[in-house]
Every structure is written in C-alpha cells, then in structure tokens.
Design brief:
- The chain is α/β, with parallel strands linked by helices.
- Helix content is 46%, strand content 7%.
- The protein is built from eleven helices and four strands.
- It has a four-stranded parallel sheet, with helices on both faces.
- The longest helix has 28 residues, at 2-29.
- The mean pLDDT is 84.
Length: 242
C-alpha cells in the first residue's frame, strides 16, 4: 500500500515537472514582437512587470485601444495610473479573458472597454492566427486555452495549444534572450500605448456614408459582453464602454 502511494505521488510529480517544462519551452519557442507598431509582446509583458494593485484605470480591447489611450497623458492630467492591456484586432471573446487575467494582479477603479471586437466589421481581421497571437498574451494557461475555444477547426486548435508542435522549426533562430525571456520582467515605458502615426498637418479626406440599418452583434460576442459586465459588477468597478 505504501509503495503504491509513493508510486502515485512520483507519477504526479513527474506530470507536474513535465507540464512546467512544456510551459517553459513554449514561451522560449514563441516568436517575440517588440518592434512598434506590431509590439504585442512588449505590451502584454509590460503589464506583468507592473507592481501589484498599482493601476487606477485599465484599458482593454483591440488596437483601437492602444492607439487611442495614452496613459502618460491621463496621468499628467488626472494623476491616475493606467495601462492599455490590449491586442491586435483582439476578438471580443478574448478580451474577457484578458480582463480575468488582469484581475489576478490588479484592482483598478475604472475599466475602459473598446468594443470594436463587437462590431461585424472586426471579423475582417479576426483570422485564426489572431486568436493565437492574442492568446500568447495570457500567462494563465487555463485562460489561454479557454481563449482559443472559439476556433472551429479542432486540428488547428490543437496546434495552437501545443506551441512546441507549432514553433519547433524555430530552433535555429533561438538566442540566449529567448531562454531568459520567461524569467525576466519586460517593463513597458509607454504602458501599452503605441504611437501609430506621427503628427501631421496633412488633411485626410475620409469617405462618408449613410447608415441605413442597425446590425446587432452576434450572440457569442453578446454573451461575452454579459460576462464582462457581470465580472465588473462583482468587483464593483466603474465600467465604461469606449
């Protein structure tokens, strides 16, 4: 009986060690995006470098959020500390998991939610690869796995869950920085904001159109909106839709 318990405990320990090794090498092999404007790694990793419970305001959503909201200006004008924890063309379902991830270390007073992901037009850029790219910004592996469940292709979903299977060909491209990456903090001096375009006096002509109908977001996105609202209510946050 005693030997059986010992074997069981050893088996559990081996499984835990194996999972930790897989998680570590998954982060090692993933491509890193540090160059603006496509610096999603810089944005998400910068969030994890923040001091715990240091934020007053949290911005969530797509690139509309990180091009629009500048935490430096907000701090200068109001004294509030904020961060833009967003991702490129982020599907609205994944924004929910970004909020859950953020609340593990932060307790902001205000949540500002970019709702581009709710719009039908957002589907033009929401490829399966976008789901994968945004999932890599989630450190909690359970949230990362859950954030991929809206992908319809089971085989592709499996590839996205197993980074070593997807990125094993990057072996020759790895550097020492890749191996050190999981252990280092990557502070983002812009707090998630990205300057997309320099200031210019050039006048840009924009097309105008007349709205002829109201299109309701699909049921899946609306269900995630309800989840976000419920989570904010439980935490007693002031929630704004932006």
């Amino acid at each position: 009986m005693k030997k059986s318990i010992q074997l069981f405990l050893k088996g559990i320990l081996l499984i835990i060690i194996g999972c930790l090794i897989i998680v570590y090498f998954s982060k090692v092999f993933r491509p890193k995006y540090f160059e603006a404007p496509d610096d999603v790694t810089n944005k998400t990793e910068g969030f994890y470098a923040l001091e715990k419970n240091s934020l007053d305001v949290l911005f969530l959503g797509s690139s509309h959020a990180y091009y629009t909201f500048n935490p430096a200006i907000l701090w200068k004008q109001t004294g509030a500390y904020s961060y833009v924890f967003a991702g490129e063309c982020q599907p609205f379902s994944q924004t929910y998991y970004y909020l859950k991830q953020a609340l593990k270390t932060q307790s902001p007073q205000v949540i500002v939610l970019d709702v581009f992901g709710l719009l039908d037009s957002s589907k033009a850029c929401q490829t399966d690869g976008i789901y994968k790219k945004n999932s890599e910004g989630l450190r909690d592996e359970i949230y990362r796995i859950q954030s991929l469940k809206e992908i319809n292709d089971p085989a592709l979903k499996l590839d996205y869950l197993l980074d070593l299977r997807l990125y094993h060909s990057r072996w020759n491209d790895l550097t020492l920085d890749d191996f050190k990456f999981p252990f280092e903090k990557h502070f983002n001096p812009y707090f998630g904001w990205t300057m997309g375009y320099p200031e210019s006096n050039k006048k840009i002509e924009r097309d105008t159109y007349q709205q002829t109908e109201i299109i309701k977001p699909d049921e899946i996105n609306l269900s995630y909106l309800d989840k976000i609202i419920d989570l904010c209510k439980k935490k007693e946050f002031t929630s704004f839709n932006g």
